User: What shape does this take?
Amino acid sequence: ELKVEQNPLFLSMQEGKNYTIYCNYSTTSDRLYWYRQDPGKSLESLFVLLSNGAVKQEGRLMASLDTKARLSTLHITAAVHDLSATYFCAVDTVVNTGNQFYFGTGTSLTVIP
Amino acid sequence: EPEVTQTPSHQVTQMGQEVILRCVPISNHLYFYWYRQILGQKVEFLVSFYNNEISEKSEIFDDQFSVERPDGSNFTLKIRSTKLEDSAMYFCASSEYVGYNTEAFFGQGTRLTVV
Assistant: This one.
């Protein structure tokens, strides 16, 4: 069974600091997604990484993908309180019947003023 | 921008009752999915649906669950006799086609509380 593992599961960091969330997966998928989820809310798509070496940045978040290592990172630069949320990575497998997503366990991020 | 919409946003039901969760996928999409997230846990795949039939389903999707596309726009998930452990956020998703150049879009979710 395809596995997607994230670490850390919980992250508490001070405003202004940098940190990286890691996502390892067990399949040869070339596509990796990062989502943000606020408590009780839906999944907000942050990044779609489509190839080895892909790097995308939006504001204080930057995501990268290394398909050979089956590793993606989500780097947070100069964290602010508004980034507090749970972050999920996901990979999908493509079969002729659809794209099936496998989600990581999530990283609950708390940014402390 | 087109989006997947789900209704209701929150449903409270008594144990043993039937519930129907509704989703309106993006209009030109052909593949539909339901996912579940128990509070504090990861999002889990339930079922995928294409061409008016189930194409894949997980172990979670047992005989208590069914899906239907009753008309050209709605996609529903029915839980026949709800249990306490069915309490979760249920997400609908849709994609236009399959392949490495397509993306699935998620709805805002329905929070189901079974009491």
In short: Chain B touches chain A at residues 31, 33, 35, 41-45, 48, 50, 55-56, 89, 91, 93, 95, 98-100, 102-109, 111 (CB under 8 Å). The mean pLDDT of chain B is 91. Chain B has one domain: 5-96. Chain B is about 0% helix and 50% strand.
